[in-house]
Write a structure and sequence with these properties.
The chain contains 19 helices and 28 strands. The protein is α+β, with helices and mostly antiparallel strands. The strands form 6 sheets. A 6-stranded antiparallel β-sheet has the order 3-2-1-6-5-4. A 5-stranded antiparallel β-sheet has the order 8-7-11-10-9, sandwiched between helices. Helix 1 packs antiparallel against helix 2, helix 1 packs parallel to helix 4 and helix 15 runs antiparallel to helix 16. The N and C termini lie far apart (173 Å).
């Protein structure tokens, strides 16, 4: 068929412009083929995906004379990563996550290689596009046809993709899709190898691979760690180079066994390693070519040294446990299956029950019991209860092989398998016949004890040491005022009511009796009644033991307050009597000494007067006689004072001391007394200084007041060390004060109250005479006169005694008798 002639051309000839276009199309087609051939060659080379993608994209854009392009790899989760780009804003490695309804997802859902055209405003990361430009999205299929990437291209408005261009584009898309699929496969294999490598390196197993020459082609880190070498120093070496000769020979023999059988074999291998000899459970296996020919030997081994040590230790402990169980003479250990048949029988069980193991194993244990457990089905019910509750305790009468009966206390425990199933039961059996008989006897004894308690009024208590619980007997709490319903079962209730001062000693003695094997305990202490009173109680108890272990304590508590008070009263009277005897003896000793001294001196002066009188003449002058008589008179006055003090004590004790009150000028009376005492004080070397302000009319007993002042002046002269003595009087309309101050040895603070007691002194009587009665008598007289007598003193600075009396007492105070207990 002839084509119609083109206007302006000769008939049958192709116009030059058309021929030029055809030639250009052929050249473009050839150029595309060349590009495809070049890209095919590049695909066969070992180029990385980014390099191949960048080169392919560059040639594609140049061939199709496009301005922009980007290759996006599809990742897990629907995201895209830029592999290569030219003339576009995305950078290699950039991630995007297109919207769900975008052209991207519509293109991926299309099974064919369809180019999608998008406009200038389409959300495709090729912007900015030239005004009026448009783009193409090309789906890149993988080896299985699934989409693995998207190719985004930007075109100028004047460019159009004809069928040849689209075919070329699809061919390049197949090449790029195949390259990305290969990259995915490579990554997957690499990840699998890395995971396997990590598994080997992190494994607790020793893993190795030996080639046909016996040299290690692979070992993991644990293999090298046991040898204390880096992995690099192990690879390429043989067993002879890494292990002692005997260890290497053993490993060779095991490898030969595996090669000979062609099957994996398991061995226990003891290896001599730097840290010592260790035991391994080794699995050696052959590695085969695809054709089945062995080419290497693999090794996977686990260090079971600790496991073996544990196994040996368990065997040792099992043996010890067996010895311990067999050594229990008073207990029998029995094993039962789920049906109650005997599976284990210790030597203690043989001694307890009378049957040997071979006579009892396989039989139901119920046949040796009487009572409840002997009834059909009761044993299985007891075992079922033990399985439910974890343990069961029961007491039952049993019959030994010789026919004797005994009471057996059995504790049953379930035994479970690892997977949770019931394996059987363990029974701990004890002969408690003696305990039962003791309890029966104890109950009878308690009944008698309750009768005794009613008769004696004692409070019975029963302390369960195992459960730590106290039971109080009939009317035990009521005797101390507590109600019968009082919650007193906890021992702390009793402990809290022991007097705090007695608690430590009582508890200490109780613990000592319980823990040190004593049978009896006794204590007396104060106990708190319900009304708050403290009463003395006598508490004693008896400790019951089983196999040497304390299990119970029974005792009684009785109120002994009357007895204790009587004992305390007797003790007080005895102490007071002893003190009175001591004071009497001391008084007699001091009185005899004090009375003897002036008598001896008086006797001496009288003898000298007789001697002078006998000689006569100038030896017996009136002056010498007067002096001797004055000294004798002084000693007589001392005797009168001592006797007067003794009489005053008697009067004060009997209440017969008389007081005669008169209205006198106290200042004048004091002045006259001081004049009489001045000569006496001059003998002591002390100067008397008086400060009397006016007259003080007062109603007083002059003789008793003079007696007080005489005692104070006598003490001032005795203890004043020859220093001045000041006497002053002052007062007001209600009372007056007389102060006597010396500058002598002084009195310590702790002695300033004691010196006013009978027979007391601040210093020893060896250095200062006297009966120690003057200040006591003076204070008692001052109190009878309605006043007080006090002292202020500091050691080494002297003392000031102050007598304080009312000027006109409202009434004459009676002379009260003194408590003879203080005499």
């Amino acid at each position: 068929m002839v084509s119609p002639a083109h206007p302006g051309t000769e008939q049958g000839r192709v116009p030059a412009a058309v021929a030029h276009l055809q030639q250009a199309a052929q050249q473009a087609q050839l150029r595309r083929y060349g590009v495809l051939a070049s890209l095919g060659q590049l695909a066969l080379r070992d180029l990385s995906l980014p390099c191949f993608a960048r080169e392919s994209l560059a040639q594609l854009l140049e061939t199709l004379e496009l301005s922009q392009g980007a290759l996006w790899e599809l990742l897990d989760g629907g995201r895209f990563r830029c592999v290569a780009s030219f003339g576009a804003s995305p950078r290699p490695g950039q991630l995007v996550e297109p919207a769900e309804a975008s052209e991207w997802h519509a293109l991926l859902a299309t099974p064919s290689l369809t180019a999608k055209v998008f406009g200038e405003e389409a959300p495709v990361p090729l912007t900015p596009l030239a005004p009026g430009s448009q783009g193409l999205l090309v789906r890149l299929p993988g080896s299985s046809g699934e989409a693995v990437a998207v190719l985004a291209l930007g075109m100028l408005p004047e460019r159009r993709c004809d069928a040849d261009a689209l075919s070329f584009l699809q061919a390049v898309a197949h090449l790029l899709g195949a390259a990305i699929s290969r990259e995915h496969q490579t990554r997957t294999r690499r990840a699998e190898v890395e995971r396997l490598q990590a598994l080997f390196e992190g494994s607790p197993l020793v893993i190795g691979l030996k080639g046909p020459d016996g040299r290690y082609a692979y070992v993991n880190r644990r293999f090298a760690t046991y040898l204390r070498k880096p992995v690099e120093e192990v690879l390429g070496h043989t067993d002879e180079e890494l292990f002692p000769a005997d260890t290497a020979r053993m490993m060779h023999a095991h490898d030969d066994t595996v090669r000979a059988t062609g099957e994996p074999r398991e061995f226990e291998e003891e290896l001599a390693l730097p840290e010592g000899r260790l035991l391994f459970l080794a699995e050696r296996f052959p590695l085969r070519e695809p054709g089945g020919t062995p080419y290497a030997t693999g090794l996977m081994a686990l260090d079971i040294s600790a496991l073996k040590r544990t196994e040996r230790e368990l065997r040792r402990r099992e043996g010890e446990l067996r010895q311990m169980v067999d050594g229990l003479e008073d207990q029998g250990i029995i094993g039962l299956d789920t049906q109650g048949r005997v599976t284990g029988w210790s030597r203690g069980a043989e001694r307890l029950k009378g049957y040997k193991a071979e006579e009892i194993i396989g039989r139901e244990v119920a046949f040796i019991h009487e009572g409840e457990l002997a009834r059909p089905g009761m044993l299985r019910e007891a075992l079922a209860k033990a399985a439910r509750e974890g343990r069961v305790e029961a007491e039952s009468w049993c019959v030994r092989k010789d026919g004797s009966r005994f009471l057996s206390e059995d504790t049953v425990f379930p035994l479970w398998m690892e997977e949770g199933g019931l394996r059987g039961f363990s029974v701990v059996s004890r002969d408690v016949t003696e305990r039962y008989e003791a309890q029966m006897e104890l109950q009878r004894s308690e009944a008698r004890y309750r009768l005794v308690s009613r008769a004696t009024g004692e409070s019975i208590w029963d302390w369960d040491l195992v459960e730590n619980r106290v039971e109080w007997g009939e009317q035990a709490l009521e005797r101390f005022g507590y109600p019968a319903r009082e919650s007193a079962s906890d021992p702390s209730w009793w402990e809290a009511r022991i007097h705090p001062e007695d608690r430590a000693a009582v508890l200490s003695s109780l613990v000592r009796a319980i823990e040190h094997g004593e049978e009896r305990w006794y204590a007396e202490y104060r106990f708190l009644r319900a009304d708050g009173d403290q009463v003395w109680v006598r508490d004693h108890g008896y400790v019951l033991r089983e196999g040497g272990r304390p299990v119970r304590m029974i005792g009684a508590m009785a109120d002994i307050t009357r007895r204790r008070r009587a004992e305390e009263e007797r003790s007080r009277l005895y102490r007071e009597a002893q003190e009175a005897i001591r004071l009497r003896d001391e008084f007699l000793s001091v009185a005899s000494h004090e009375l003897k001294t002036p008598l001896t001196t008086l006797q001496l002066h009288l003898q000298m007067l007789r001697m002078l009188a006998t000689k006569g003449g100038s030896a017996f002058s009136p002056e010498r006689a007067t002096k001797k008589l004055s000294l004798a008179e002084y000693q007589v006055q001392r005797l009168v004072t001592l006797v007067s003090d003794l009489l005053d004590i008697s009067r004060l004790n009997s209440g017969r001391m008389e007081f005669r009150f008169e209205t006198v000028d106290v200042a004048r009376m004091v002045r006259e007394l001081l004049e009489r005492q001045r000569q006496l004080l001059r003998h002591c070397g002390s100067e008397l200084r008086v400060q009397l302000r006016g007259g003080y009319a007062a109603r007083v007993d002059p003789m008793r007041l003079e007696q007080i002042l005489t005692n104070l002046l006598s003490n001032a002269g005795k203890y004043g060390q020859g220093k001045p003595i000041d006497v002053s009087i002052e007062g007001d309309e209600d009372e007056y004060f007389i102060r006597v101050r010396d500058r002598g040895i002084g009195i310590a603070p702790e002695d300033q109250q004691r010196i006013f007691e009978r027979f007391e002194r601040a210093v020893s009587e060896r250095h200062y005479g006297g009966l120690g009665l003057g200040l006591w008598i003076s204070r008692r007289i001052a109190e009878r006169l309605g006043g007080t007598l006090t002292v202020r003193s500091r050691p080494g600075e002297g003392s000031t005694f102050e007598l304080r009396l009312p000027r006109f007492p409202s009434e004459t105070r009676p002379s009260e008798p003194v408590d003879e207990a203080h005499w």
